[in-house]
Protein: ATP synthase epsilon chain
Amino acid sequence: MKTIKVSVVTPDGPVYESDVEMVSTKAQSGELGILPGHIPMVAPLQIGSVRLKNGGKTEYVAVSGGLLEVRPDQVSILAQSAEVSDSIDVERALRAKERAEERLREQQRSHVDFKRAEMALQRAINRISVSEKR
Ligand code: ATP
Structure:
């Protein structure tokens, strides 16, 4: 089986690096399945999961948005934050979810705060959902 190199990098450093058969994720333009030899492209990523398939094994990484760069032999994901499913602290994500929901319930918040709480909520929900896929 042909493979493609994948690296997931955040401002804190690399989070994941491997050779895989397929990378699947959701870009802002829709679902993307990337196989070795894919045409070069760059796409923004939403808060979501990246699925990595290799040798009958599937791994999941939670990403909080960023940029996907595809070259025929390499996929690079540059994310603001990213966690491999096993390394997600579910309790922490549940607390973050609670906090964000509380902020969203509070009235007379500025638009900026509202957006920020909404993004925090999305990150937390995404982490919880990716942790369940391990
Ligand atoms: P929190 O309020 O819990 O910090 P957050 O969404 O504000 O959540 P981020 O700013 O996205 O957190 O991430 C900060 C750092 O903490 C990143 O390195 C991220 O990978 C890590 N991180 C955040 N939440 C979790 C989690 N539930 N499990 C593991 N790592 C996490």
Observations:
- The first strand starts at residue 4 and ends at 10.
- The chain has a mean pLDDT of 94.
- Residues 4-85 form a domain with the ATP Synthase; domain 1 fold (CATH 2.60.15.10).
